[in-house]
Structures are given as C-alpha cells and as structure tokens.
Amino acid sequence: MNEPPLVPYKYPLIGHTYEIRKDCEGFLRRCREKYGDVYNIYRGCQVHTIAGKDYAHEFITNKHADFLGGIERSIPIMELLGLDESTRNISIKLVRDEFTPLMSNFIEKIQLRAKIGLEKHLGLCQDPKTVYFLTNTIREILSFANAFVIFGEELSYDTELISSCAGFTNDLIKFARFPATLGFIHPWFHKKQVHWMMRLVKNPGERNRAKLINKLPKIVENRIKEMREQGDKYNPPFDFVQKILDDNLAGEKENIDYNLMAVMIYAIIFLSILATASKLTYAIIDYATETDYQKELQEEQEKIAQEYGPDKCITIPQLERMVKLESFIKESMRYNEDILGLSKVNLSSSPITLSNGYQIPPKRTVWCDLLSVKESEEYHGSDPTKFDPRRYLNKNSSTTLVSRTYLPFGLGRHACPGRFFAMTNIKLLLSMIIRNYKVSFVGGAKPKKTVFEGRLLPSSDGVIFEKR
What we know:
Strand content: 5-15%
Oligomer: single chain
Radius of gyration: 23 Å
Low-confidence stretches: none
Number of strands: 12
Structural class: alpha+beta
Distance between the termini: 63 Å
C-alpha cells in the first residue's frame, strides 16, 4: 500500500501528541514544509493522516469518509446526546428541509426575543459592563432568542428550559474537553474516562432532557386536542415540537415517546448553539479590535435601520444587503477557524486513493490541516495571516458557502445543515450589538486565543460593553 510518509517521533506511545499540544501550528508548518501536503503522524498509539489544502477535500467528500466516526473514536457524542443513527438523521432533516427554507416565518420573533435577551444579559449599559466568559453569555442569549422555535410559544418563556439549553451545551463541552490524561496512550482510554464521568455526575443529556419530558405532555396533549377539535381549520404553530408531531417522528399521537422527542430537540439545541456561539463571540471580539472598520459597519447599519424604523424588525432581504457585515463575519470565521480539525474515518473495507497516489487504509482517521487552507494566498488573496474585514467585500462570497477554500461549515454531504439558521442568528445579533453598544477590552488589549490540540477556544478574558 502506498501510504503517506510517517513523520519520525521520539517517544513511544505518546508519539506526536505532546508536540501537537505544545505548538500545533508550528508542528504542522514544519511537517508540511518537509513532507508535503499529506503525511502520517503517530498519536495515541495510532497512525493518523494529515491532509492539507490540496488534498483534504478529496477525502472529506468521499462517500466512505465518516465525520461522526472521527468524533466517536474519542468522545461518545451519540451516547451523550442520546442519539442513534435514525434520530440523528431525522434531526438533521428537520433543520435542513423544514426550517431553513422558512426562516422568514420566524425571523421577527428571533429579533424581538434577542432584544430581550441582550437587555437581560448585557443590560442597557449606561455604565460600562464587563463580561467574562463571553461565550457562555452568548449561549444564554441565543437560547432565549430561539426558545420559541425549539420549544414552542407555550414554553418559550420557561426560564428553567431556557437555562437548560445553554447549560446542556456547556455541560457537553466540559465532557468533550475533559482532560485526556490517558489519551496519550490510546483514545479508547479517554473515551472510558468520559464514561466514568458520566456515571459519577450523571449524563448531562439525561439530566436536561428530564426537565423537558416533565413539561412536554401537557403542551402536546393540548395541541392534539385542538387539532382534533378544529380539523382543517387548525393553524399549527411553527416550531420543532409541532414538526415532530406532524410527521409522527416520536410515535403516533396516541402513543408518543416523549423521551425520543426530547432527544431530538436537545440534539438540535446542541448542534445549533455550540458553533453559533463561538463564531459570534469571535465576531464580537474582532469588531472591538477593528476600530478603523467600526464606523463603516455602523453607517451601514444606520442606513438600513432608517428603512424599518426603531420599532420594526429587519427582514431577510435587508440582512442580505448588509454586504460589509457579511464580509466582516466571513473574514472572522476564516481567521478564527481551527488549526486542525474535520476528522473523518475511512469506513470502507478498501483503501481510499488520493489523486497524488497516496492511499488511506480502512479505519484510518484523517485530519484536515485547516491552517494550510485559511492561510492560502491562492484561496484568500494577499496577507492571509492578517485580519482584513474587506477581504470578501463585493465578491459575492456568502458566509454560508461551502467549498474546498472555506471550511468553517465543513464540506460535502456532512456540511453543516443548519448553517443558514446559524448565520441568520449571527447577523441579527451582531447587527443589534453594533447599533446599541461600544465594545472594548479590559486593559485595552485583545484577548489571546487558547489553542487545545489544534482547536481554537474563545478567550474568557473580560469584554466591556457600553451604550452607544
């Protein structure tokens, strides 16, 4: 088999794990310079393949490359979420096919609730307010803004459930980032560590789903009663609870599996809030940093705001006209992309052959060298290591685009199905923050990013909000 070259390593068992944790960026640059765009490393008693910008897309889009398998090798994410293959696919289909095409139906409610969420968690900020762990606050605001889409109008102001949305996501992240002390030896040991933690403190998925299961029956029974009484005149709510009922996804209406319904709802919560909160946090931090571009963004917002007035909501067409905001957000997502990620496993019983002749054996995990993608002059123009808010201005380059040159939402059949929903939330909330707040940093310096095994994590340093 014509495998990529294996990078030499010093330490048995540990292999390259220490180098990746200590300086992932430098390690990838050195390997790429010496061994080319595709090579093998040794990590956790296993050989892994690293693919750079010229070949990563070939494996990512291969029908035998499995995204979930790459995650499950070290984190039992399906068990944490309570999902099986069927419920996972149903949840994805709901977001992709039922809600994305109809975003204009609920954009007004998201804005009205986002405004309340901002006032609750940031306040009017007549005096400057410092927020630490900004990502956690953003998760709370997103949870409040989207509660009616997720739970329905009846439960959309239930503070326990709204808090559980952000809490559920925070808890799962803690499990996922649980120190992989034995992962030096093999990912299987880290997975076992997580299982032990689940037994000690109880699976956060089960704990949060139990809250919803206690509240769902009354709501569902009332809706079913109204459906039967009103017949064809019944005007169904537009939310995930109703779609699950309409499509009999949790059993027939006479015998509903409320646990299954809660599993699907919380899977959607996790998938929609996790990445959205991080991307929005980075965009806010970049906005505070790019003082020269702030005025241009503010002028664009004020110009469009004059069209709908202070008491009206932004429409989808008006969002699409915010070209400066679009360019800014896309550059923020490119610039803050992980260094190493999008791991997938070859589930085929045969090797996958890349166009350069290298072969990826069965059960091999392949990682994308995202650093080589986001720092490519060929893909992104001059000075790709610098933040340029005008990089994509007037280039008709959408933030939801998925291509080999831009991977924040993945690529191929596993591209994020909720990216349109996520970007609507990010644009709306950042638009509201730009119009209402001055943003700066404690001490004046931009918070430093934290890098953990190739993943970029938003800083917990203080961000200051003040009324404009």
